[in-house]
Amino acid sequence: MMSNIHPQKYHITLSSFKSLTYQFHVIANDVTVELCQKYYSNEKLRVLLNDDDIKLLWKTRILFDESKEDFIEKARLKSLNMNLLFDTNTTPKYHKNSDCESLKNNYINFEIPPEIKFRGDGEILRLKKFANEHKELLREDESKFIDKLTAQFFLANPPRKLEYVNSGRYEFSELSVEEVYAKSIELTKKAVDLMNNNRDVYNKRYKPARLLKNDSEELTYWLKNLKPKLMEALYQYGIKKFGPSDFSFEKSFLEKFCFEPCRLCLKEKIIEKKDKVD
Q: CA–CA separation, 69 vs 252, rounded Å?
């Protein structure tokens, strides 16, 4: 008789999920924009989004593509993250309870600046070493840390800050995949209309939002309001289409990426397992 018991699902934070994609070293030339537009059923992605945005969408699909098993295994062999300033020293956790206190931990990091990547791996390692040696300064005064880092490596632009303030597990949209897709198309049309009616927005559409200064209200609206909403809609559509709709995962999937059970909400199970071994 076939069992009707479904595998236990576990929860992870949004930052943990997004950090999975940083395990993949994806070069822009490896990303087929046309295929990405096909996967997300949106032919306007190339016009509206920059290379980093396209790569994020591409990697989100790769994560759930079983044909990429060998790619995932190769990614796990990397001991250093050459895309982020600080390596994640703590092993990511999965949680039994969606309201577990450990799901509320904050995460902060910085992207390696493109100009440092252009100088090569040696310079990336020097930057990471310098940053780790000045972690205490970062804790005391973030702006001084950034200024010191920028001056030391003659950066034209400071590293982009990544910060996720968690309020529990990621709340995925309750909309159906069709409704989420419709939302992404609605936002796409708004973006296209905005750029058709404002040449300045079109010309500066790839500008990092952190560099906004004395720019038009329309450009500020695109970079700080409309574009983030569009990316969120595409991101949720990608997870809904390619991955688990409720943002909970089977243990086998998470352990493939070296996740460990939470020592708070799964503490009893850990102790029980240890007792059985003893």
A: 13
